[in-house]
Amino acid sequence: MPVSARSRDSKPEAGRAASSTPDVPALVARVQAGEIEAFEPLYRHHVDRVYALCLRMTGHTGRAKELTQDVFVRCWERIGSFRGDSAFGTWLHRVAVNLVLEQHRATARRERRVEPRADLENLPHVALSGTEDQRLDLEAAIQTLPPKARQVFVLHDIEGYTHDEIARFTGSAPGTMRAHLHRARQLLMKRLS
Amino acid sequence: MTPHLRDEELHDLVDGVLPEAGRQTVDAHIASCLECSERVERLRRLLAMAREAPRGVAPPDDWWPAIRSTINQRKIVPLGAVPNQPSRPWWTRPWALAAAAMLLVAVSAAVTAIVLRPPPQVPIARASDSGFSVPSVSPRLATMTANYEGLTRQLLIDFDSRRAALPPAAVAQVEQNLRVIDIAISEIVTVLQAEPDNDVLLELLDTSYRQKVAVLEHATESVS
Asked: CA-CA distance, A193 to A15, in Å (whole number)?
């Protein structure tokens, strides 16, 4: 699969995080020993990537903010289980994905509410002009996707997880997961055409 | 001309997972069908845009103070590891027990401080008062207990079903941690019956339940 595990180990590229590269393994060791001061640089180095994931997965800035904070609290709680088998950023990203999906399941169970999203088919098509416009259109169109389709698209086509990995995250059968992915792509192509 | 590509064929082709057996037919169709070749191009453009989307988005505010405050307020004890021994199995590491033991020490200290503090000034009971107090359970305690009990019950079922796949030392470590955490929970609940709205105790109880969930999740995830 060409997009699998494409760049999950890459460092955050946007904002403050790109300005300096801390010694992540050393910081992790200090955090595992309970030193909260060492947690702040880890947070600053990874927050952009975590927030982007939460934002795209939820399509809601308020929930993304809460989830981002929860991700780092959970990271602090469970950092002892990080054994260095993968990059810390990869492990943190998985913590974030699990938390977002967990919260989504809990919310869906509690509320069974209709998400306040525009029906994609009814949105006017926007003429694309230039790369930045296309990117913004893509981000906007992703937010209008049905929740499951959006999550699978973000995890597979943006974050680079494999079909099998996403099936494990979501608890869905791989066939169901692929169906969500195909539907997401079809809707996005229609929106962006 | 062969039939147009089905959606599934289109996606499998672009993902590179189309079975070799049907690949030649699909390629031949695309070469002769403008409509399908445009569909393939549109999908490739979409995926290229997705790959180029920025990995990070800077938050609008600095959330570190809030995160630090949450960690401090909840008195969350990190399940810290021993950095120089990464190859040791997790159940043999001292942190696994130490975290639970630290939790119990924190809980015991807080409970003792609350129990031993001077009693508040209370008005003299009126003749109509019943003369004894009935232990009460606050809605917050009831909600928290209900939320966590269901989750921990399910996790315990999962743990039991995977117990055979874990080394005996790991099972013993998990059970010892659970016993320590359960003692902490029991102590807190006992005192909360007398002081159902004590925020410190409720926070400690929340932390204790979260530690229990973390221990069980860690144990079950390690064999899944």
From this structure: 31
Indicate the pTM of the whole model: 0.58
- Whole-angstrom distance, CA of residue B152 vs CA of residue B111: 23
Q: How far is CA B97 from CA A75, B71, B85, B166, in A?
A: 19, 20, 16, 17
Q: How many helices (H) and strands (E) does chain A have?
A: 8, 0
CB contact set of B158 (below 8 Å; sequence gap of 6+): B216, B220
Q: A16 to chain B, minimum CA–CA distance in Å?
A: 8
Domains present along chain A, CATH in parentheses: 1-113 (1.10.1740.10), 121-193 (1.10.10.10)
ipTM of the complex: 0.78
Each of the 193 residues of chain A gets a pLDDT tens digit; together they read: 333 334 444 444 334 444 568 899 999 999 988 899 999 999 999 999 999 999 999 988 999 999 999 999 999 999 988 988 899 999 999 999 999 998 888 776 655 444 444 333 333 333 334 566 667 788 999 988 988 899 999 999 999 998 888 988 887 788 888 888 999 999 999 888 7
Domain coverage including residue B199:
88-118+135-221
**Contact at 8 Å (CB) between A42 and A24?**
yes
Tokens of B14: 């672009």
Q: What is the chain A residue with the closest CA to B76?
A: A77
Mutation for B interface: A37, A77, A79, A188, most B CBs within 10 A: A77
Burial category of B138 from C-beta neighbours within 10 Å (exposed 0-12, middle 13-18, buried 19 and up): middle
Residues B196 and B106 in one domain: yes
> Residue B65 domain-assigned?
no
- B68 and A55 within 8 Å at the Cβ level: the answer is no
List the Cα angle A115/B213/B68 in 5-degree steps.
75
Residue B78 in any domain: the answer is no
Among A80, A84, A182, whose Cβ lies nearest the Cβ of B99?
A80
